[in-house]
Amino acid sequence: MKFFNLKNYSLIILNIVLFLWSSRFETCHAREGHQWRLKSKFPHGSTAGSSHQHPTRSTMSKFPGNNYMWADETMSTQKKGSSKAFNVLEFGAKGDGKTDDSEAFGATWAAACKVEASTMIVPSGNVFLLHSVSFSGTGCGADIVFQLDGKIIAPTTPGAWKSGLLQWIEFTKLNGITIQGKGIIDGQGSVWWNNLPTYDPEDSEGVVSAKMPGTKPTALRFYGSTRVIVTGITIQNSPQTHLKFDGCTTVQVSDFRAASPENSPNTDGIHLENSHDVLIYSSDLACGDDCVSIQTGCSQVYIHNVNCGPGHGISIGGLGRDNSKACVSNVTVRDVAMLNTLTGVRIKTWQGGSGSVQGVTFSNIQVSGVKTPIMIDQFYCDRSKCQNKSSAVAVSDINYINIKGTYASNPVHLACSDNLPCTGISFSAIELNPVQEDRQPFCWNTFGELRSTTVPPINCLQMGKSRKPVVTC
Ligand SMILES: *[C@@H]1O[C@H](CO)[C@@H](O)[C@H](O)[C@H]1NC(C)=O
Ligand SMILES: *[C@@H]1O[C@H](CO)[C@@H](O)[C@H](O)[C@H]1NC(C)=O
């Protein structure tokens, strides 16, 4: 009897501990407004990040997720309101949605940047109008937190943009930068998308109509930085790409939302270029272009538990434009739900390029009404006509595992280069049914293997290996 009492006692203790632990999570999520989803605390092989829409869990990933544990640890040790906190309101920001608060933000940054592990606070309950700003890390301490709980909006007058800019808000050359909070960055992009004349009070002519500049800015860009975290925030209505990383190492994006309408042109959700060790998870990406776009110079990219749509899917490329060399390797995309997107998982390269895409796994992708769920296009061309060229970006070792759902146009479209066939393309557990009309998979110069029967059958795949491309990247 004593034994049982002891056992019951420890069960009660265990229950109390579990209760306290889980209520900690709930508080956190109610605050972030993501109640429907449990935060994925353990990105690697965990099932906690699954949302209502997400497909079944995976145990297939071979990605070294342990590398990313530092990020969660960092976040849990950040304190708000400490002596290292710098609030934009204390540096003269008005937060009335009308006054240009760029200078106040610049002054706040100048102060916060000097202090290691400081926090710059953009408080809730305010709307801050910002012209283009660059938060430079030159001379800054490490591990700065940008606590964004308020809303930041972009100007909609052409005069505020002069002749046009590549980005609106930029963080550069930082060693440890976290943007966190429940805040919103709103690019007010409709004035750019529609290309309509806008009223510009800053124009010297006074009351006139003017058009926005031709160069549409990325909303938020990180350049040349290491250990970058973006978590909790929303970027909406971006004039162009929502969130961009260029030349960054060790990047983590989680509980992030990109939201722009389906018909907003060139509004990629997340755009990666020349970046390594990138982890993106538990995020909702709805936009008018690629949900995630992986460009040249990227490797060790891991994306999981993401909802994509509307949008163009998750894409590697277009690579090799204007005869350039492009290298992308070691990309894993798993547990992604795609709704009514243009493509699902896609690799696109221009003719005439060189370099390679290798070591890519797409697994547990749930598609609903996606036009073309699986696509390799080595004849990518965004003009009416592109010249045929013999060189190409080599595509090899691409694995498609457990890709299921419905397609609207073609289930599988694999168009590989005439001179450099795709090789090592493998398929298992593919089950794609038409929304309306049945279509057969298309392959051109594609070599690989079928590891299980597929629906529909991918009979056009040529078995075995083509000559392995010799590529130095
Ligand atoms: C890609 O992964 C392979 C195997 O783990 C590794 O040897 C290679 O260095 C990785 N490539 C890059 C560019 O990180
Ligand atoms: C390119 O090659 C394709 C296939 O061989 C051919 O149908 C097409 O007409 C060519 N295009 C041009 C611009 O030469």
What's the alpha carbon Rg, rounded to whole Å? Answer: 24 Å
What is the strand content? 35-45%
Name the structural class.
mainly beta
Mean pLDDT: 85
Number of helices: 4
The CATH class of the largest domain is: Mainly Beta
Q: How many DSSP E strands?
A: 33
Query: Architecture of the largest domain, according to CATH?
Result: 3 Solenoid
What do we call the CATH homologous superfamily of the largest domain? Single-stranded right-handed beta-helix, Pectin lyase-like
N- to C-terminal separation?
Answer: 69 Å
List all distinct small molecules, including ions and cofactors, that are bound in this structure: 2-acetamido-2-deoxy-beta-D-glucopyranose
Number of domains: 2
Low-confidence stretches: 1-81
**Helicity level, as a percent range?**
10-25%
- Biggest sheet details: 20 strands, parallel
CATH topology name of the largest domain: Pectate Lyase C-like
Shape, principal axes of CA atoms:
elongated
Description:
By secondary structure, the chain is mainly beta. The chain has 2 domains: 83-289, Pectate Lyase C-like; 336-473, Single-stranded right-handed beta-helix, Pectin lyase-like (Pectate Lyase C-like). It has helices spanning 2-32, 69-76, 102-113, 190-193; strands at residues 85-87, 96-100, 119-122, 127-129, 133-136, 144-148, 151-153, 167-172, 175-180, 184-186, 198-199, 209-210, 218-223, 226-231, 234-236, 243-246, 249-254, 257-259, 270-273, 276-286, 292-294, 298-308, 314-319, 325-339, 343-349, 354-370, 372-377, 394-407, 412-415, 422-434, 442-444, 446-450, 462-463. The strands form 3 sheets. The chain has a 20-stranded parallel beta sheet that branches. The protein has an 11-stranded parallel beta sheet with strand order 5-8-13-16-19-21-23-25-27-29-31. Strands 11-12 form a two-stranded antiparallel sheet. It is elongated, with a radius of gyration of 24 Å. The termini are far apart. It binds 2-acetamido-2-deoxy-beta-D-glucopyranose (2 copies). One 2-acetamido-2-deoxy-beta-D-glucopyranose binds at residues 299-300, 329-330, 359. Residues 385, 387-388 line the site of one 2-acetamido-2-deoxy-beta-D-glucopyranose.
